[in-house]
Write a structure and sequence with these properties.
2 copies of one chain form a homodimer.
Chain A (H helix, E strand, L loop, with lengths): L2 H22 L4 H6 L1 H11 L14 E4 L5 H10 L5 H4 L31 H16 L5 E6 L6 H12 L5 E7 L14 H10 L3 E6 L3 H13 L5 E6 L23 H7 L37 E3 H15 L3 E5 L3 H4 L2 H6 L4 E3 L4 H13 L3 E7 L7 H10 L3 E6 L17 H6 L5 E3 L4 H11 L5 E5 L4 E3 L14 E4 L6 E5 L2 H15 L4 E5 L2 E3 L3 H11 L1 E9 L4 H8 L2 E13 L8 H7 L4 H17 L1
Parallel strand pairs in A: 1-2, 2-3, 3-5, 4-5, 7-8, 7-9, 9-10, 10-12, 11-12, 15-16, 15-18, 18-19
Antiparallel strand pairs in A: 6-13, 11-17, 14-16
Helix pairs in contact in A: 1-3, 1-4, 3-9, 6-7, 6-14, 11-17, 14-15, 18-22
Subunit structure (chains A, B): Homodimer.
Protein name (chains A, B): Transketolase
GO molecular function (chains A, B): magnesium ion binding; thiamine pyrophosphate binding; transketolase activity
């Protein structure tokens, strides 16, 4: 498109953004208007995308990081002929797929959900990494950012990652409209301030007038010609550009234009230009295929093996069987044992250094492209990426997250390193699966099972060695459990997972010597839980005692309680959990101090059994 | 101290780090050894600190961001005469206050817990901000960082914040030992790479040999002489410096030295030099005092007021009555209503822009210094700061966090903006308090009550207006609840909080017309919960129906269930919660689609009542 056509297209995108927001009675048209020319030039002259084949392997990828500018995205879809005007005007209504912030669940051209600022660039960096090292079909990744969101550390985590990885297929466009939600940004229109920052992280920075379509065109061309480093286009723009009453004015963020009809007229009225978006190149790489039969590691019953070790070996084995499995590390691969995968499959291993947001964002970006990522760090440090995990669930992405060093059982390192709230965090993620295995064979089976589940899958592993209690032939999966001790005389049921399974077994055996029989359930699938087994145990033994190496809220105790919120009278239940702040001590001392070791369990059982007798 | 003395002190700190780790059988001596000379020069020649009066208002503040180098910190305490050698050797043992990573709960000279990397600099920036704008006693804030942790985005969020705020009282020291946990860092010994990044964010960067005590001394002097901008000292060091068998070698992170005795000899053997640390200046500013009686805003029953509005007004009022209250905003103060405080008390208002980790870190830093911070953003975006919240609880800090725009009730903006996992996150924080008020007067009282509680306090507010149901004279606090509908004929109890209280009341009134009486409890204190009231309701009505605008896990339903994990038979319970992924729609449509509006509650009640009859 030439200058006149591009300028007209920019106005059309503004008009449609204003119309959509007016129809909705809400939305962020002024944030769309500042970026309209940037979007017009991209769509008409540079993006390579087949809207009829969003899955085309050589399609460029576009991420709208400033997700609140969604009317601009939908206006562009209309201009590209992907949606009709009638649908555009369903924006933000019940049932419409054109949501306030874009999500890929129902709109096939959206790569990832945005709306939590500072996530678009990190995820785009993940896609670009997949493009460069995995897909290799030559596509470019474009991400349109706001200037306000550059205050997020996650942006600089991504800048560092992309710069270090020389992602010259990644182009960030920053709509520097100088106004945030409540007022001016830190740096206003000082493009140099942003350029210095990106350059320091190894990027090629290009400054441009964001309303001069020819200048924008040249900037994109320069960005595409950049090799060996990612490029950022810093575009000086005006919020609400094109309508004098709102242009460059504070206090108008997230509000439809006060007089939409007059604004549309001022913008030149409705237009219906259709853009012929460039086709992607025909070349398309085949997807990786299964390379060999899955040979999971097998461990002997009674052997002492840390579940983190089993995870590392199982992941390496899975990587051999499935060419689509990739692994990501937060610079603790020697501790999480992801290093096993790194050794076996170095081309599918990604070191993300100590940057947990980028770790999860990279995994998300790879999942966007159909890869099956396993991202690992200490369980405690996954809390750093909570918002990214939440957003990945909104995207409907399937990613595997593995947290090692869970609970007080880690010992001397103290509370900063103990995952004690990870189960609560992951249970509350929509559609998630949460596994907490107690032995090596179970871990191996769950590592393999995770790969094929939907949504966010979490596996919690343990630092220290625990005895293998299951044979390598046993099967485990979502919603399962194992009853490890059971008799007709069981006085109650101990429900445990991970390290506490072994404490429960020791307690059960000790109590049995005194004639007190208790059932022991290994509830390795914390979400979904095996409701039938728990109900059966409650009916048959009358009381459930949950024991978890986790805070008392949101973990195993809550998971068990949820089963009994079914309108029927609940069983007797008691919870053992970590209720005090731990310090440094040996693992067995920690479990004892928290009252979740065999001694603590035995004492609780005796108390409950005596209470029952007393009644 | 002169060159010889400083060098000897560095060796002493190394020896004591090796000894402490050897005694513990674990720890990170090589990470301590690289920074020993940096610490020696700081302690002997630049730090102004009275170890006998850690609360001295003019004491410099020191934060060990690389918390795993704790033996170095404890060795410095010994050199300063603050602890004895015997205590040093209790490192990492059960009951010792010298934990694997430093925590301030028991060690008076530790400002904040560290061990989750990338948090020291953000919190130090918060302390420095308090120093400059609140305390004004002239102290400096020193923070010793590792090089690995510079990969964390939170470090650059802090760099941006400190640069923009011209915090020339903040000095970061980076121990560039080039080795992370599993291998080399991204930039190795390339000090320039780090210098470029800090300079881009407005810092003065100084490069030095981190083992040349005179050079270090000059670097500190230069940093102290820097005005108008924060300073960073980038020190080239060797991990394990001083012991040839471990110096600059990979694979030795987090391990005691293999041959401790030989290493100690190589380092010149034990020394017992005591350092006379400089006294802080005598000047000490008085703490702020109560300036006027608290006049909370009062709202008329029946009036329609958003609880976020009530929060804003109450916080401004509280700021008038308490001079120690400060407010922090994540660039959404117009939405959270923190802007009310900003207008009333601009000197105690801190804009943190869209940087939620720094928002919470700044609050933590101010709490370290005795201020009472209220930090606010959307509930959903507080997940971004989860790891900082977790660490603040380990520090034992009292901070108030306020999340607005909770739940599907926000309406059209869609799931990225909806806090649907915040209750789960905050309940699982050790020692936390969680409030979710339903009306304006209740909100105001809870805003005031929060200020005096221990630990992490969370208040969840609502975007839309809700009717005022309580008079301004009613009192509310931690562990409370209100029974809003009650009769002797109640067939069950609806337990609600926030927006769902109003839906529950509407349902109760509708059902009453059909002769079905239900009790309604407003469980505004989600943690701790009012166990007695819930137990009484369970006994008297036989069934509890919880209704929450939150995912089904970790929130109100789980909080109620926890009450009944007391070893006694549980009541009948049923949960209504958000179980599907919302899209865009009006607030009432959202509540209806999630089944948590009056219609959904009524339908559930009828089903439960019929079931009871059928039995």
């Amino acid at each position: 498109m030439n200058t006149t056509e591009l300028a007209a297209l920019g106005q059309q995108l503004r008009v449609d953004s204003v119309r959509a927001s007016a129809a909705a009675g809400s939305g962020h048209p002024t944030s769309a208007m500042s970026a309209a020319d940037l979007m017009a030039v991209l769509l008409a002259n540079h993006l390579r995308y087949d809207f009829e084949r969003p899955g085309h392997p050589a399609n460029d990828r576009f991420v709208l990081s400033k997700g609140h500018a969604s009317p601009l995205l939908y206006a562009a879809y209309k201009a590209a002929g992907a949606i009709e005007d009638g649908e555009l005007l369903t924006f933000r209504r019940l049932g419409s797929r054109l949501e306030g912030h874009p999500t890929p669940r129902r709109v096939p051209w959206v790569e990832t959900a945005t709306g939590s600022l500072g996530q678009g660039l990190p995820i785009a960096a993940g896609i670009a990494l997949a493009a460069k090292r995995l897909d290799r079909t030559g596509y470019r990744v474009w991400v349109l950012c706001g200037d306000s969101e550059l205050a997020e550390g996650s942006v600089w985590e991504a800048a560092e990652h992309a710069g270090y990885e020389n992602l010259d297929n990644l182009i960030a466009i920053v709509d520097v409209n100088r106004l945030g939600q409540r007022g001016p940004t830190r740096h206003g229109h000082d493009l140099d301030a942003y350029a210095r920052r990106f350059q320091a992280f190894g990027w090629h920075a290009i400054e441009t007038d964001g309303h001069d379509v020819d200048a924008i065109d040249r900037a994109y061309a320069q960005a595409l010609a950049t090799t060996g480093q990612p490029a950022v286009i810093l575009a000086r723009t005006l919020k609400g550009k094109g309508v004098a009453s709102v242009e460059d004015r504070e206090g108008l963020h997230g509000k439809p234009l006060p007089e939409a009809e007059a604004a549309i007229a001022e913008l030149g009225g409705p237009r219906t230009t259709h853009v012929r978006v460039s086709e992607p190149p025909a070349a398309a790489a085949p997807r990786p295929v299964t390379t060999e039969a899955l040979q999971l590691p097998a461990f002997d019953v009674g052997e002492e093996v840390a579940t983190r070790d089993a995870f590392g070996k199982a992941l390496a084995a899975l990587g051999g069987a499935r060419g689509d499995v990739v692994a990501l590390d937060g610079e603790v691969g020697d501790s999480t044992r992801t290093e096993e995968f790194a050794k076996a499959h170095p081309n599918r291993f990604f070191e993300c250094y100590i940057a947990e947001q980028q770790l999860v964002a990279s995994a998300a970006g790879m999942a966007v492209r159909g890869w099956v990522p396993y991202a690992s760090t200490f369980a405690a440090f996954l809390t750093r990426a909570h918002d990214f995990i939440r957003m990945a669930s909104i995207s409907g992405l399937g990613i595997n997250l593995v947290g090692s060093h869970a609970g007080v059982a880690i010992g001397q390192d103290g509370p900063s390193q103990m995952g004690l709230e990870d189960l609560a965090m992951f249970r509350a993620v929509h559609g998630s699966t949460v596994f907490y295995p107690c032995d090596a064979n179970q871990t191996a089976k769950l590592v393999a099972a995770m790969a094929s589940l939907d949504g966010i899958r979490y596996l919690r592993t343990t630092r220290g060695r625990t005895p293998v209690v299951y044979g390598p032939g046993e099967e485990f999966g979502a919603g399962g459990s194992r009853t490890l001790r059971s008799s007709e005389d069981d006085r109650l049921t101990v429900v445990a997972a991970g390290v506490t399974v072994h404490e429960a077994l020791a307690a059960a055996d000790r109590l049995a010597e005194d004639g007190i029989r208790v059932r022991v359930i290994d509830l390795y699938s914390v979400k979904p839980v095996d409701a039938d087994t728990l109900r059966g145990a409650a009916e048959e033994t009358g009381c459930l005692l949950t024991v978890e190496d986790h805070h008392a809220e949101g973990g195993l105790g809550d998971a068990v309680a949820e089963v009994f919120a079914d309108g029927r009278p609940g069983p007797r239940t008691v919870r053992l959990a970590v209720r005090t702040m731990p310090g440094s001590a040996a693992p067995d001392e920690q479990l004892h101090a928290a009252g979740i070791d065999a001694a603590g369990i035995s004492a609780a059982v005796r108390l409950l059994v005596e209470e029952t007798v007393a009644r």
